[in-house]
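in:
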């Protein structure tokens, strides 16, 4: 019985011309543009919160460009380490 049901589902999927999202009537809750804007806002809020803590300690504030440069340097270092391990 289970095999028959699975077989029927495979036949339906084979002859269905739409995609799975249409079959389920699925729509994303937010647009990709909204997701990108949310990500940008999150980074800005985290940077502001970190700078507030740094001001309380008397440390120098960080700019977004400094943060991006640091992340890029760390990613390059990780790639170098992976390459060393692979060889």
């Amino acid at each position: 019985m289970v095999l028959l049901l699975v077989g029927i589902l495979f036949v339906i999927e084979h002859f269905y011309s739409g995609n799975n999202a249409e079959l389920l009537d699925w729509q994303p809750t937010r647009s990709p543009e909204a997701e990108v804007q949310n990500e940008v806002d999150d980074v800005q809020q985290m940077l502001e919160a970190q700078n507030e803590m740094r001001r309380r300690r008397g440390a120098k504030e960080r700019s977004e460009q400094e943060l991006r440069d640091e992340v890029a340097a760390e990613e390059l270092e990780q790639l170098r380490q992976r390459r060393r391990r692979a060889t």
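note: Helices lie at 2-15, 20-24, 32-57, 64-86.
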